[in-house]
């Protein structure tokens, strides 16, 4: 009966849709930004350790602490970051009442929080690429961006596949504190992700049976995504 309720619930369908969209934004955004930052760090010869620490320190913060800090910095009325963005863009930012803005804010914070984890693995993967390959590409006149896309990314593909899987798990399961502390699933259910809806049904509405069904469905969704990602990535992965 609980599974039948989920299958016919428009609220659950909406939570499912925004969760998939949120995961896609977080996974892609985290990989792109992390790859860019890791490549910049890889190019640095002086003070690289200091830059690396600066890049990965957000990952050391507990998620709840990061959510509290960013809530203050991005507060629509009090946040210094919001004030600067409004001054530069001339637009009004009020993600306490604007659903799309709230979704974007939570996604950006989730990406920022996960960057350090990805950067550690990407820098390690870049450092394992043979120096002779880099020198040969430079002698052939390959530019920096083309070097990253054509040379480094294929050789980093096993690491990137691993990070896609880990970032997907993170987006579906580990972003609960961000939603709970920053938006509480609102406004207008715009950030009511599956993991947060499961929590509310279990502990706010005391519907443990429905929440148990939601946990099984969430596990199945992530497991299917993992399988699809791994199968699709096999043809694009280069194992040196």
Describe the structure.
The structure is a single chain. The protein is mainly alpha-helical. Helix 3 crosses helix 6 and helix 11 packs antiparallel against helix 12. The mean pLDDT is 90.
Estimated radius of gyration: 20 Å
Assembly context of the chains: single chain
Task: State the low-pLDDT regions, or none.
Answer: none
Task: Report helical residue fraction.
Answer: over 70%
Helices, by number, come to 12
Distance between the amino and carboxyl termini: 50 Å
Using DSSP, what is the number of strands?
Answer: 0
Return the average pLDDT rounded to an integer.
90
Strand content: under 5%
**Which of globular, elongated, flat, extended, rod-shaped describes the shape?**
globular
Structure class: mainly alpha
Main beta sheet, described? none
> SSE order in H/E notation?
HHHHHHHHHHHH
Quick summary:
The protein is an all-alpha fold and 240 residues long. The protein has helices spanning 2-8, 10-43, 48-60, 63-73, 80-89, 99-127, 131-139, 144-155, 157-174, 176-182, 194-204, 208-233.
């Amino acid at each position: 009966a609980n599974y039948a309720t989920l299958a016919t619930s428009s609220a659950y369908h909406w939570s499912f849709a925004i969760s998939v969209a949120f995961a896609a934004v977080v996974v892609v955004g985290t990989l792109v930004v992390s790859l860019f930052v890791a490549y910049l760090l890889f190019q640095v010869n002086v003070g690289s350790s200091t830059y690396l620490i600066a890049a990965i320190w957000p990952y050391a913060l507990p998620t709840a602490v990061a959510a509290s800090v960013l809530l203050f910095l991005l507060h629509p009325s009090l946040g210094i970051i919001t004030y600067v963005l409004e001054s530069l863009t001339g637009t009004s930012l009020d993600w306490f009442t604007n659903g799309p803005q709230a979704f974007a804010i939570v996604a950006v914070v989730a990406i920022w929080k996960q960057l350090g984890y990805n950067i550690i693995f990407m820098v390690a993967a870049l450092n394992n690429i043979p120096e002779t390959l880099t020198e040969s590409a430079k002698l052939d006149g390959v530019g920096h961006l083309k070097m990253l896309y054509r040379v480094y990314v294929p050789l980093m593909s096993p690491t990137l596949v691993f990070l896609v899987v880990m970032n997907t798990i993170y987006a579906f399961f580990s972003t609960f504190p961000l939603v709970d502390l920053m938006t509480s699933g609102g406004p207008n259910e715009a950030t009511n992700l599956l993991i947060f809806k499961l929590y509310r049904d279990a502990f706010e509405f005391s519907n443990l049976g429905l929440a148990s069904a939601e946990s099984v469905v969430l596990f199945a969704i992530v497991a299917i995504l993992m399988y699809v990602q791994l199968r699709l990535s096999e043809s694009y992965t280069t194992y040196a």
